Amino acid sequence: MKKMFLSLAAVIIIGNMATAQKYFTKNGHISFFSKTSMENIKADNNQVMSVLNPQTGELQFSLLVKSFHFEKALMEEHFNENYLESEKFPKSTFKGSIAEIGKVNFTADGSYPVIVNGDLTIHGVTNKATAKGNIVIKGGKITGTSVFTVVLADYKVSIPKLVETNISKTIEITVNCLYDQKM
User: Fold this and answer.
1) Whole-Å CA distances, 28 to 33, 39, 87, 115, 157
2) What is the pTM of this model?
3) Which of 97, 100, 103, 101 is nearest to 116 (CA)?
4) Quick one: which of 89, 93, 149, 94 has its CA closest to 123?
5) 181 FRET partner, CA 20 to 30 A, in 24, 31, 50, 169?
């Protein structure tokens, strides 16, 4: 009886550990791109933290705004001081989930189109967001990618009249995260 109880307890503990397994990255990549007739603006952030729970589809991102880097130092300065006000609003986050997570087979190599829904916080403003993405499983590693647009006015990011032709009112966001660590 005691052996049966211990065996049952071991199965339950191992089962709970397997279902509670989450994947994360500390060096995910998010970039943004603004295209206008005057000038293209691109910035990259390679210090994005993200956690993915393959059982529930829960997905979270967090990044420091100051970790975006630009080709021109002056652009970076204006971005942090005038537009995103990174001293006042140091982080941007996303908390949401992958819809229909059961359609992604995390045990088989493949490419799986997904829809992600959640709350996106930029510049201290939180809005509902939905984006198409892709989950790629290859050799036991998980990569998540997405490209979507953000309307700056939705996040109370104002552009001065003097430079409004230099910055697009919508910004293209590209996400690429390799979930290479387990929690």
Assistant:
1) 17, 27, 22, 19, 24
2) 0.86
3) 97
4) 89
5) 31
